[in-house]
């Protein structure tokens, strides 16, 4: 069981590394610039909020989205 889950996790890590490789190795200049700008913006976000605050805001957002969806959903008959 552990071997199965470790293989699944390793496959996901390998897939992620393969997808992020071109960003770090500048194979596509436009994507690398977008990634660099995103990281630069995230440094300012990190300066304003610490990680725990972002985690709390994320959890509040995740649990409030279904409530907002239920209130504004259109019923189809």
How is this structure best described in words?
By secondary structure, the chain is mainly alpha-helical. The chain has one domain (1-74). Helix content is 84%, strand content 0%. It has 3 helices and no strands. It has helices spanning 2-24, 29-48, 51-72. The longest helix has 23 residues, at 2-24. It is extended. The model has no long low-confidence stretch (mean pLDDT 84).
- What order do the helices and strands follow? HHH
Helix fraction bin: over 70%
Largest sheet: none
Number of domains: 1
Query: Roughly what is the average pLDDT, rounded to an integer?
Result: 84
Helical segment tally?
3
The termini sit apart by 46 Å
- Low-pLDDT parts are none
Write the layout of secondary structure elements.
Layout (H helix, E strand, L loop, with lengths): L1 H23 L4 H20 L2 H22 L5
Membrane topology: Multi-pass membrane protein
Main location: endoplasmic reticulum
Keywords: Endoplasmic reticulum, Membrane, Transmembrane, Transmembrane helix
Structure keywords:
0% strand; endoplasmic reticulum; transmembrane; membrane; single chain; 77 residues; mainly alpha; Reticulon
Put the structure in a nutshell.
The protein has one domain. Helix content is 84%, strand content 0%.
